[in-house]
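Entry:
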Amino acid sequence: MELTLRRAILDDVELLATMNQRLIEDEKSRNPMSIEEIKDRMNDFIQKDWQADLILFDSRVIGYALYQVRPDDYDPHLSVVYIRQYFICRDHRAKGYGRTAFQLLKEIRFRNQVDFAIDVLATNSSGKRFWDSVGFEEYSTSMKHTRNNA
């Protein structure tokens, strides 16, 4: 399997937004954004202090990662990579591409020298299983109280 990473640029915003919309569906997010709103947000990410990599299999885009390098919450001398979005297209899942792409991200972009953090929605059980399988461990639980919980 020949996987590569390519740094995303502004010309990739529409493609990134389309994949992000699928990610929102797959993780059963309550995010109500339209595709135009997602494009605008993705454009802001790319222009500001976020990085995005397209994940390619034999030169075809099969996913992406959107992340930001931040100071560690407890030791600002250390860095942590916060992965905000990570997506592999549905027809390429369960084939090892997600795992291999994450390894490439660690080795190529960060030379295995940083820690990673991610949030996984409670509704995204397959996402949680994936992140468990690549070595992530639960650290905290974020909870929400809505009007409907009263």
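The two ends are 50 Å apart (CA to CA).
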